[in-house]
Design brief:
With 196 residues, the chain is α+β, with helices and mostly antiparallel strands. It contains four helices and nine strands, in the order βαβββαβαβββαβ. It has a domain of 137 residues: Aminopeptidase (3-Layer(aba) Sandwich). 27% of the residues lie in helices and 28% in strands. β4, α2 and β5 form a beta-alpha-beta unit.
Length: 196
């Protein structure tokens, strides 16, 4: 049984004031990715998985669908991920803490993805593919998933030129329906960046 209340923040406006408090906290922090959280609006995402404990937001991440950037019937999981300092050891994808994203956010977003008929979900990361794979091994073990990092980096921002460095990311695919990985590779071939 979880110590957290797990919800889609869009469906629970009573926590929006607390969400704004968290965004202000991030803005004042030295988080290298704080630009990602400026003007963040949960309503711009398919699902905005939020963990609440004692009335406080402890972590959040989103499931994003964007057919302009990726092919239909796919979702980007664990985007705009944030967790409270009390849950951090080294970074967002470290496995020495409670692994809230692995244990709570991914199962919530995966269940929603299946419910709305997505074929594939992916998680992306700019750097450190080996550490990313180690974290994914834990994700796969806990969630009975098959996330696998593709050997080529992709532009996850869609058809823009020049491609910003932050858009070049390692992709880990989980097939909800068999054939999703092959469909991703075929549909996203124009967005390949390089190989390992």
């Amino acid at each position: 049984m979880s110590d957290y209340l797990i919800l889609d923040l869009k469906q629970h406006p009573k926590y929006m004031l607390e969400f704004q408090r968290v965004l202000q906290l991030i803005e004042k922090s030295n988080d290298a990715l704080k630009e990602n959280y400026r003007n963040l609006n949960p309503h711009n995402f398919e699902r905005f998985t939020t963990l609440i404990k004692d009335g406080k937001i402890m972590a959040f991440s989103a499931l994003q669908i964007d057919e302009q950037k990726w092919f239909p019937e796919t979702g980007r999981a664990i985007t705009r991920a944030w967790k409270d300092d009390s849950l951090r050891v080294i970074g967002k994808f470290s496995d020495g803490d409670e692994s809230v994203f692995r244990n709570y956010n991914i199962p919530d977003q995966l269940e929603h993805a299946k419910k709305i008929g997505l074929k594939t979900i992916f998680i992306s990361r700019e750097s450190k593919p080996r550490a990313f794979q180690n974290w994914l091994d834990g994700v796969n073990s806990v969630n009975n998933t098959n996330f696998e990092i593709l050997p080529i980096q992709y532009n996850v921002c869609g058809n823009i030129c020049p491609v910003p460095e932050s858009c070049v990311q390692w992709i880990a695919i989980h097939e909800i329906i068999p054939g999703g990985k092959e469909h991703w590779i075929k549909s996203m071939s124009e967005f390949c960046i390089n190989s390992t």
